[in-house]
Write a structure and sequence with these properties.
Strand content: 5-15%
Oligomer: single chain
GO molecular function: acyl-CoA dehydrogenase activity; flavin adenine dinucleotide binding
Number of strands: 12
CATH class of the largest domain: Mainly Beta
Keywords: FAD, Flavoprotein, Oxidoreductase
Distance between the termini: 24 Å
Largest sheet: 5 strands, antiparallel
CATH architecture of the largest domain: Beta Barrel
Number of domains: 2
Protein name: Acyl-CoA dehydrogenase
Cofactor: FAD
Helix content: 55-70%
CATH topology of the largest domain: Butyryl-CoA Dehydrogenase, subunit A, domain 2
Family: Belongs to the acyl-CoA dehydrogenase family.
Length: 510
């Protein structure tokens, strides 16, 4: 017999979350002390404590998401009501439970006494909150309200952003979805009607100010529009639409951060219209997250630079005709990330899975698509440069930009992180819709499988996790508009990418 449902209010959820937040702060401080030597961070000690760091990062992400989810659910201006409030209560309870379960499994590793942990987060008040909030009946009611209301929770957008969402949702359904399965199964390229349609809608200028031909207001960034569009396109087809605006977004933000006025005037309007399609080249075969270790070189030659080396996981590198290349321009290895610069290199656009281009000067660029189990359409390439020439005026920031490429690149990556989250949300939304539709149609023992308790639990929990993640991403977008939220952007990318695996797997199980 399932437990009887007992109502849980916002204040109770917030109080429980404040306790779990305090525990996370305590173990984070203990970890910081353990990973320091004479007041400075020790890389060796951090390496020795990787698992604890990973788990604290995960719990921190979930904690911050839960706190914002509760705020959103009780904000009537966002169009929320009983459904969103029940979802937020469940997510808050699961978060508190995850915090105490993980840390109690190895308290000494987290630098906390087991007895202190019990008194703080295993007391009668917390136990009762979790029992009431995570009652199976709550999940059943969430699932039934989703079906009754016809949605998985209010998006909470203002009128302008909701109009954006509806416009690109229709485009995704009418133009993207009909191509998605074919492109995936045949490892095909992106159809021109998708790229052309997005050009016509101004999609590639989402992160470019109006003064440069884009649709972003001149006075302030609008990362939320980029998120909303990315999610809807990803819902329609991740590999053929969802990631198309990521590369121009990264390139345009790097240009806005570090480009000379002449470079902004030249390249931003071309990116906004889609006349120039961007490719981003940062990762190398031996360097990924360790961006400071980049080894592709650019050396001065004949009024410009010649590039040599290999980049990998360069998405859209074949079709792109303007490449942002992070390379080492300074020969002193002790400079590390301060020896990196960005060059903007032009090349012809090549559809397909391989390309080779030889410049009149003799320089060469070659690329070959990397086989993947998904994310097909755009294709990621390994690209080699052999004395590839780039004019001096294409050094981002001019001579003053030498050695600052790492910082210019990071400006674009923050937006790229929340875009990754938005892509994950689009995939989760599509999976959740398909799972619910199938559950209502598929009958076992004379009734739809949706009517079974386990199916309702799965649907409800998938929806709760998606909605919590989505609302935090929207919050981070607003932070980035004010040049804040770098850590939060990292956390939501981490969280959304991981839970997308779980949600899609659950959808397949249904």
């Amino acid at each position: 017999m399932s437990a009887t449902k007992t109502a849980v209010d916002q204040a109770t959820a917030k109080k429980a979350l404040s306790i779990s937040a305090g525990v996370i702060v305590e173990v984070t401080k203990a970890l910081a002390a353990r990973c320091s030597v004479n007041g400075k961070v020790s890389v060796d000690k951090m390496d020795a404590n990787q698992l604890v760091q990973y788990q604290i990062a995960w719990l921190t992400a979930e904690q911050k998401i839960a706190e914002k989810f509760v705020d959103y659910a009780w904000d009537a201006s966002r169009g929320t009501g009983d459904l969103e409030q029940e979802m937020a209560i469940v997510f808050a309870a699961e978060t508190v439970n995850h915090v105490r379960t993980e840390i109690s499994s190895r308290p000494s590793e987290y630098g906390i006494k087991a007895s202190d942990l019990v008194s703080k987060i295993f007391n009668d008040e917390i136990n009762q909150f979790l029992e009431n909030a995570m009652a199976i009946q709550n999940y059943n009611e969430i699932a039934d309200k989703i079906v009754a209301k016809g949605h998985f929770g209010a998006y909470g957008l203002d009128d302008d952003h909701e109009m954006f969402r509806e416009t690109f949702k229709k485009f995704a359904e009418d133009v993207v979805m009909p191509h998605a399965e074919h492109v995936h199964r045949h490892d095909d390229i992106i159809p021109e009607d998708i790229i052309g349609g997005l050009k016509d809608m101004g999609c590639f200028g989402l992160c470019i100010p109006e003064s440069y031909g884009g649709i972003q207001p001149n006075d302030k960034p609008d990362n939320l529009s980029m998120l909303v569009v990315t999610e809807e396109l990803s819902r329609g087809g991740l590999g053929i639409a969802g990631s198309l605006i990521t590369r121009p977004e990264i390139m345009s933000k790097a240009l806005l951060k570090g480009g000379t006025q002449e470079q902004k005037d030249k390249w931003l309007p071309l990116l906004a219209t889609g006349e120039k399609m961007a490719g981003i080249m940062v990762t190398e075969p031996n360097y990924g997250s360790d961006v400071a270790g980049v080894s592709v070189t650019a050396k001065p030659a004949n009024g410009g630079w010649v590039i040599n080396g290999v980049k990998t996981w360069c998405t859209f590198a074949g079709y792109a005709n303007l490449l942002l290349i992070l390379c080492r321009t300074e020969s002193d290895p002790s400079l590390k990330h301060k020896g990196l610069s960005i060059l903007l290199a032009e090349k012809p656009s090549f559809p397909g899975h391989e390309f080779t281009y030889t410049q009149p000067e003799g320089g060469k660029i070659e690329g070959k698509a990397i086989g993947t189990i998904g994310y097909r359409g755009m294709h990621s390439f390994e690209v080699s440069f052999d004395n590839y020439f780039v004019p001096a005026e294409n050094l981002l920031g001019g001579e003053e930009g030498r050695g600052k490429g790492f910082y210019f690149q990071m400006e674009g990556f923050a937006g790229g992180r929340i875009q990754t989250a938005a892509r994950a949300h689009g995939v989760m939304q599509a999976a959740l819709e398909a799972a619910l539709r199938y559950a209502q149609e598929r009958a076992v023992f004379q009734k739809p499988i949706y009517e079974y308790n386990l199916t309702k639990y799965k649907i409800a929990r998938m929806a709760v996790i998606l909605q919590a993640s989505r609302q935090f991403a929207n919050h981070v977008a607003n932070l980035l508009d004010d040049h804040k939220g770098q850590m939060e952007a990292t956390l939501i990318k981490f969280y959304a990418s991981k839970v997308a695996e779980w949600v899609t797997r659950e959808a397949m199980q249904i």
